[in-house]
Amino acid sequence: MSIFGFFKQADINAGVQEFLKTEKAVLLDVRTKEEYESGHIENSENIPLQQIEKVLAKITDKDTPLFVYCQSGARSSSATSALKQMGFSHVTNIGGISSYRGKVVKG
């Protein structure tokens, strides 16, 4: 991998497409409740990064594929690391909704 590939940002648009093709996957938005309500990707679950441990109460199967996003990709990166430390085996940081070209849902 070149040094440029190392700094390549996750592509949220490709990540959402992968989520849609993955059976039993969960799309996880780790922004604040207010950010989530201002516009989120349809069918996503909101668990803010500061409360990431709450995912354990909602998702009991640690083999569930998790696709994680935030505003820019920084919080989703932190959340991805935390989820892996909690024992989740299929966690993907898909980046930030600021680059998303699809429809968002408000409320």
TrEMBL record:
Coiled coil: none annotated. Keywords: Transferase. The keyword Transferase applies. Residues 21-105 form the Rhodanese domain. SUPFAM superfamilies: Rhodanese/Cell cycle control phosphatase (SSF52821). PROSITE patterns: RHODANESE_3. GO terms for molecular function: transferase activity. InterPro entries: GlpE_sulfurtransferase, Rhodanese-like_dom, Rhodanese-like_dom_sf. This is Sulfurtransferase.
